[in-house]
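Contributing new records

If you add data, match the layout below exactly. Sequence lines come first and carry their own label; structure lines follow with theirs. Keep one chain per record. Anything else will be rejected by the validation script.
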Amino acid sequence: MKIKVLSVIAAALLLTACETSGTGAGGAGGAGGAGGAAATGPRLGGTGANVPVGPTQEYLVAQIGDRIFFDYDKYDLRTDGRPILDKQVAWMKQFPQMRITLEGHCDERGTREYNIALGERRANAVRQYLMANGIAANRIKVVSYGKERPAQQGSNETAWAANRRSVTVVN
């Protein structure tokens, strides 16, 4: 059972990693990071395009990772999300003027009200982690979309795993 769940999560991460990068609330692709947080010059992003270095959503998606995932009905940070958040912290420290919005998302199960609250707890868990690692609270806004903005359509474990997430958006 455990292997089956891990396989489904791995498949969801692979599918999410194959998305084309975009900008905008909830639609930005990228499940993880392909590079480090040092910003010294242009780099090639995951899409093969020349990605500008700096406080941009495009750089975040291509080089660091803009989202982390959560277990069903949970809002505590998983260990696989912490390295992405550590890279986000280092990147944000390089650009102290940058502000972000943390979007909390849920899968389709549960009521709208429950999922709005759970999405907010997920985004706030990320906010607390960033703040504990030196990012000022006034640089971070939190919003919850609950189940209203799924990253992947479907009523199966693969879709649900992809939709239980927090997404970092550069303001």
